[in-house]
Amino acid sequence: MKQEINPKDTSRAVAFELWMNSPMPMVTLIKTFDVTRLYKESRRRGLKFNMLLCWCIGKAALPIEEFYMLPQNGKLYKYDSLAINVIVNNCNGGINSSDVPYCDDLEKFNRDYTALTQLASSSCQSTFVDDAMVIGTSAMTATDLDSIVNQYTDKFCNPMVMWGRYRKKWLKVTLPISFQFHHAQMDGGHAARFLDELQTTIKNM
Length: 205
Known about the structure:
Structural class: alpha+beta
Radius of gyration: 17 Å
Distance between the termini: 29 Å
């Protein structure tokens, strides 16, 4: 469910005043993750690495209150659930996107992820979830990337998690991940907590 809330009644009151009308309100943090466990689980279970990472992103964001609030068009909205947006290469050589509702049940999330991304790929149509806070993702796995910075615009204020191709060296697999967020939604400390939660979630797969 989505509802408009008064920023003054939230912990984001000061940040909302400072950053809502900023011409460049987005902040990007970059961290290199140890994704060895994720890589092994992907191989062992026959599941897509990117699907597993998307599930871990949702699980890491779940306990962080700021992820459920979104500044948009000069207002602040609150949601009671999360979804993960996935960019999909379609059959016509373009891209579409799919909003996959997050749930703790990995098998159900995998079924939804697979069905929605396959639909986007074959039909060249995007699917959206309007009543959940959407965390964007973008996986550019055709190349190694140290970091990614997305467009800085007030037209898209959702948090965004981005990565390239993972790197294998000896017995360890690593992956630099960029996390971009609107400063009215959260502060650097909240973002850092999310990145720590994400690393812990990945290691505990």
